[in-house]
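== Item description ==
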Amino acid sequence: MYLVPGTGCVRASVDDDARANLVPELLVSDVDRSIDFWCSTCGFQVQYVRPEERFAYIVLGSAHVMLEEVGVGRNWITGPLEAPLGRGINFQITVPDADLVATAIGAAGIDLFGQPETKQYQVGEDVAVVRQFLVTDPDGYLLRFQSTTGNGSPGQDGSMMRRLEVRSVKLRRLLQNLGFIYNDDGTFTYFHAVVPRKVDGSPRFGFREPRPPKVPDEDR
């Protein structure tokens, strides 16, 4: 990786195995301003550029985006480009730590569209627990940065059902005496209530993450 000439952004090496099968191409009013936001602030890296077309291909892990300045090169435009651009869509971008990205964006003096929150989403028979926030780029495209904090199955009372693998015979007996459900596959099922709590800096409520019971070192 190396710096892109004339910018403070890092250029990522091209890796054929990391190519994405779906890459949105966003028309922007100023590609330099967009690169500064997406890369310097949000953590993307420039993979390659075509300066004569005012075009940049940027990546963040497996998230790939193309940025192209309006009026330069060949633009495919199906209707009037009116701010904010990208109405009716938001781009979900998975990152290791959404709060870290939100902090960097806030430090750059950019207001968030949606404050950081912990949210549950039904995924088949399971529930995914994520941390996420929303922000618009300089042209109004809505971005949703998200990091996964856990998953499990929902209980009838809104709690999260988890499975815990236990190898210690002593601990298994203890958990059975405490009322934990012992499964045929050698795991225990336990419930952890999702209790609302106020999060500083957030207008809404976050949730405590489910935590498995501690296993004593001598029983491992």
About this structure: The first strand starts at residue 2 and ends at 3. The helical segments are 31-41, 98-107, 169-177. The first helix runs from residue 31 to 41. Residues 154-162, 190-213 have pLDDT under 50 and may be disordered.
